[in-house]
Design brief:
The protein is of the alpha/beta class. It folds into two domains: 328 residues, ANL, N-terminal domain (Rossmann fold), CATH 3.40.50; 106 residues, 2-Layer Sandwich (GMP Synthetase, Chain A, domain 3). It has 13 helices and 21 strands. Helix 2 packs across helix 3, helix 5 packs across helix 6 and helix 11 packs across helix 12. It starts with 5 loop residues before the first helix and ends with a helix. The chain binds adenosine-5'-diphosphate and zinc ion (ZN). The site of adenosine-5'-diphosphate has 17 residues, from strand 7 and strand 12.
């Protein structure tokens, strides 16, 4: 498969290390001189830009947290005057102020470059019609993909999220060959199509889907690929670093290649902050090596994953990150046991007869133990006509599977088709009612 920029994406490791080292030195000095919060952080650690001479010094640099960026809201963490910023984005920030992303023209060119690499990695060319259902607006997904499609010369359809029926009509009429949206929204499209009697195989030309912005398991990939009759690629990114375009899978689907000539990754132990070797799970941390408006040093993403450095069969030398396993802050503690939402998804989707639509409900009835309940939809066949015995068996199988995987018991509530709320963007998987009493 073609590679957009082989000079960088397939660079010899030793050359890449050297390039990263030089860029790290530059960006450390740039951040120190241009952004007060970094000068403060350097001084607190008793270091100066001259102490940073290459990759080996990465661990000496201070971390940046989401809170640090929030404290500088809206523009105090910019390295350039706002006049030089040509675009602003922001993360959804459901509570409090959002995190802002600022871009100079050079930053937008960089974004176009990494997004061109991204879509090319998923097999997109100038011949494709790309149906882009990520939200356009402050969210980085829509406009980020838009840049990438434009750069490779694909025909981009900037449909954004919502109006699902109309989306299906446009996909069919325009002959979309590529679709981009959140994995959860791809299932909404599949569901609506099934309701309308539209068969993806015979009526749609879509062959590639690039899905991200929220965690999804391998089990979810299988469901999506079958229902939409396409090859599904995982893409990762975040507003603080650039938006989508930080990393993406290649045709081998063995992790997402990080464009590390621009975004330098590390894995750390979230408790101690110590660096962990390749192959070990921990919190993903990024340093932007080339960004102008908003460089960040050792940004703690709170996303949990594992990095691998072995060269990939596609020819790219760029480090691969495994699918995100969740966030360091999404671990639920239920009756003292650690429970990860991604494990719940894995367990549910391994049970035949359950749909990939679920919600995790946590409650703490007054003076009683935490209650973990999982609402999940059962397939339509159980309801036409309703088969209570089969549903009861299905519920028991699901509860068994969950207790095996999680090590604690969870109640399963089987729901009818289309009863759990659908989302056009990121799905809401966890409803933790316990917080209502504790906060
Ligand atoms: P918001 O803060 O509005 O959610 P962002 O788009 O910046 O906005 O969110 C970035 C976060 O989304 C990442 O830190 C990560 O937790 C999640 N994310 C993005 N892409 C993926 C992916 N492919 N798999 C898992 N999680 C992802
Ligand atoms: Zn590869």
């Amino acid at each position: 498969m073609p590679i957009w920029n082989p000079d960088f994406e397939c660079m010899e490791r030793s050359d890449l290390d050297k390039l990263q080292g030089e860029r790290l030195k530059q960006i450390a000095a740039y951040a120190y001189h241009k952004i007060p919060i970094y000068r403060r952080k350097f001084e607190e650690l008793g270091i100066a830009p001259d102490d940073i001479n290459g990759l080996d010094d990465l661990g000496r640099l201070p971390f940046t947290t989401k809170q640090d960026l929030r404290d500088e809201y809206p523009f105090n963490n910019f390295a350039v005057p706002v006049e030089e910023v040509v675009r602003l984005h922001a993360s959804s920030g459901t509570t409090g102020k959002p995190t802002v992303g600022g871009y100079t023209q050079n930053d937008l060119d960089l974004w176009a470059e990494v997004m061109a690499r991204t879509v090319t990695s998923c097999g997109v060319t100038s011949k494709d019609v790309a149906h882009n259902a990520y939200g356009y607006g402050l969210f980085t997904g829509g406009l980020g993909f838009h840049l990438g499609y434009q750069t490779v010369g694909a025909t981009v359809v900037p449909v954004s999220g919502g109006l699902t029926r109309r989306q299906l009509m446009l996909m069919e009429d325009f002959g979309a060959t590529v679709i981009t949206c959140t994995p959860s929204y791809s299932l909404v499209l599949a569901e609506e199509a099934a309701e309308l009697g539209i068969d993806f195989k015979s009526r749609m030309k879509v062959r590639v889907g690039i899905f991200g912005a929220e965690p999804w398991t391998e089990e979810m990939r299988v469901k999506i690929e079958n229902r939409l009759n396409l090859e599904a690629y995982d893409i990762y990114g975040l507003t603080e670093i650039i938006g989508p375009g930080v990393s993406v899978e290649c045709e081998h689907h063995n992790g997402m290649h990080i464009f590390e000539d621009h975004f330098l990754p590390e894995i750390i132990d979230p408790k101690t902050g110590g660096q962990l070797p390749f192959g070990e799970e921990g919190e993903l941390v990024f340093t932007t090596l080339t960004k102008e408006a908003m460089p960040v040093i050792r940004y703690r993403t709170r996303d949990r994953t594992v990095l691998h450095q072995e060269k990939c069969a596609c020819g790219r030398t760029m480090v691969r990150m495994e699918k995100v396993r969740g966030r360091t802050d999404d671990m639920l503690i239920v009756r003292g046991v650690n429970v990860f939402p991604s494990l719940i998804e894995k367990a549910l989707l391994s049970v035949d007869g359950l749909e990939p639509q679920y919600q995790i409900i946590l409650d703490r009835p007054k003076d009683r133990l935490d209650k973990l309940e999982i609402w999940v939809e059962a397939s339509l066949t159980f309801f036409e006509p309703i088969d209570t015995q089969a549903l009861e068996n299905l519920r028991k199988t699901a509860e068994n599977e969950l207790s095996q995987t999680l090590g604690i018991s969870a109640r399963v509530k089987l729901m009818g088709p289309s009863t759990i709320e659908r989302s056009i963007g990121k799905a809401v998987r966890v409803v933790d009612k316990r917080k209502l009493y504790n906060d």
